[in-house]
Amino acid sequence: MHRVTIIIPVLNEAGSIQNTLLPLQSYRQQGHEVIVVDGGSEDSTVSIAEHLCDKLVHGPIGRARQMNAGAEQAKGDILLFLHADTILPENAVQIVNTKLQSTSSVWGRFDVSLSGNHPVLRIVAFFMNLRSRFTGIATGDQAIFVRSKEFNQLRGFPDVALMEDIRFSKSLLTISHPICLRHKVTTSSRRWEQKGILRTIILMWYLRLAHFFGKSPKELARIYSR
Description:
The chain has one domain (4-225): Spore Coat Polysaccharide Biosynthesis Protein SpsA, Chain A. The protein is 44% helix and 19% strand. The protein has helices at residues 17-21, 25-29, 45-49, 63-73, 92-102, 119-135, 148-153, 164-172, 190-195, 197-212, 217-225; strands spanning 4-10, 33-38, 55-58, 78-81, 86-87, 107-114, 145-147, 179-187. An eight-stranded mixed beta sheet has the order 3-2-1-4-7-6-8-5, sandwiched between helices. Strand 2 (33-38), helix 3 (45-49) and strand 3 form a beta-alpha-beta unit. Helix 10 (197-212) packs antiparallel against helix 11 (217-225). It is globular.
């Protein structure tokens, strides 16, 4: 079995990071690696995470930069990028290993489910997964994994403020199609519930269309934050 490094970028995630890291401790015991990359948290994220990971890296703020900083420290043959509010399914590392060894694909992602109970969230997740399976484009919420060799070959995630996952997926598609696992990660629905489900759906589609038509990631990030 290849060694897997799980890389988690964080910024003020004290409320969720422990729940994300605790299920990963069994993988550490099996010889896999967990790296947390902090972008300058001002809460207790670092103190919570430092005892539950193999390395805690202090990187420049920005998800793409943080993930690249973690990858530079990684020793694994496979890199798995996990959001701080996302929980991997049971036996995720073994599943990734098996799939990468049995196909010619060098990367992939999981299906996603949203944690909330609102029925519309089930529909949102369904179409997120369907769109990804149809286009070959993965989002960070889906826990992208890739062989470290190919990650380094592509020089990691592009240094952009937003949509780094989409751009990275497009680069990976030049090498192989993704493995679209039906095993589901569970990601927090807090963004959808706090900002409104319909409003968030419209925002996400607007950002994708604007990105497609060439609006800069910096401007997209400003709109997303606002």
